[in-house]
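testing teh design pipeline on a random one, pls ignore if ur not involved
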């Protein structure tokens, strides 16, 4: 059976072929083998990290299921009078679209941590979560189960740096995170905005979406804005004292530019007073 970089110890928990399992320490009594369960007795896991499913992809999978059946069983645990999905929600949804009454499944006994881990792995390895959903799932593993970045990396079969970079996306403001999800913006494109000022992010977002910017274009935009901001800060720091002195002396607002000095008056009377001092 082909492996797909699953975390250590999880290969046996997510079957990818129709196989019988003779012994399974996580199985519910004698139900470790492949069974068929009525679709209306199965519910999704509300803690499942994936929140969105492509309608087009689901319809394509449903068409395949109509022709070939469900080629890989879902994984469930018992819940009340029915079952809750651990891995395979996409197949479950597509099977309903295909008009099936039952779906092949394997029933297991898993604790909350294993259920969450399996949900993350099943989605990350088979049909990628969008980056914000994945980051949220990683954060949940860390906060709820006291995992380190390396622990999470080991569980999902990715590098520690990959996990850290994905988690950093949660530092983006809510508007940027929402844009990522709604417009399917890649993680790499958004990374240059993580350390940018909120004003720069809000200015970049509409153009980034409308013009389909690359990561390099985002980097250049942020760099140009930071350069202008730095120049302005330097100017402010250099001439601040002089501006205050001139403002006090002439009783008019004074701004010093690179090659100019500007006096501002509120009305004609102030202007006349200013001119009388020259």
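output:
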């Amino acid at each position: 059976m082909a492996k797909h970089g699953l975390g250590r110890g999880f290969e046996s928990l997510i079957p990818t072929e129709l196989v019988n399992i003779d012994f399974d320490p996580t199985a519910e009594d004698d139900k470790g083998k492949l069974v068929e369960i009525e679709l209306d007795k199965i519910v999704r896991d509300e803690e499942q990290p994936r929140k969105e499913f492509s309608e087009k992809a689901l319809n394509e999978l449903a068409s395949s299921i109509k022709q070939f059946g469900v080629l890989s069983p879902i994984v469930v645990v018992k819940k009340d009078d029915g079952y809750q999905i651990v891995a395979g929600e996409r197949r479950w949804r597509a099977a309903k679209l295909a008009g099936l009454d039952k779906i092949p499944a394997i029933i297991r006994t898993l604790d909350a941590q294993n259920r969450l881990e399996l949900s993350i792995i099943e989605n990350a390895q088979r049909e990628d979560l969008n980056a914000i959903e994945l980051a949220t799932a990683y954060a949940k593993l860390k906060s709820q189960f006291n995992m380190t970045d390396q622990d999470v990396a080991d569980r999902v079969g990715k590098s520690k740096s990959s996990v850290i970079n994905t988690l950093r996306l949660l530092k983006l403001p809510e508007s940027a995170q929402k844009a990522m999800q709604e417009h399917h913006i890649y993680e790499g494109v958004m990374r240059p905005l993580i350390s940018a000022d909120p004003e720069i992010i809000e200015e970049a977002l509409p153009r980034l979406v409308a013009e389909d910017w690359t990561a390099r274009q985002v980097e250049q935009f942020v760099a140009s804005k930071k350069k202008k901001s730095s120049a302005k800060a330097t100017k402010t720091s250099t001439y601040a004292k002089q501006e205050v002195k001139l403002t006090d002396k002439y009783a008019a607002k004074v701004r010093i530019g690179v090659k100019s000095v500007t006096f501002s008056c509120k009305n004609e009377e102030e202007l006349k007073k200013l001119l009388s001092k020259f």
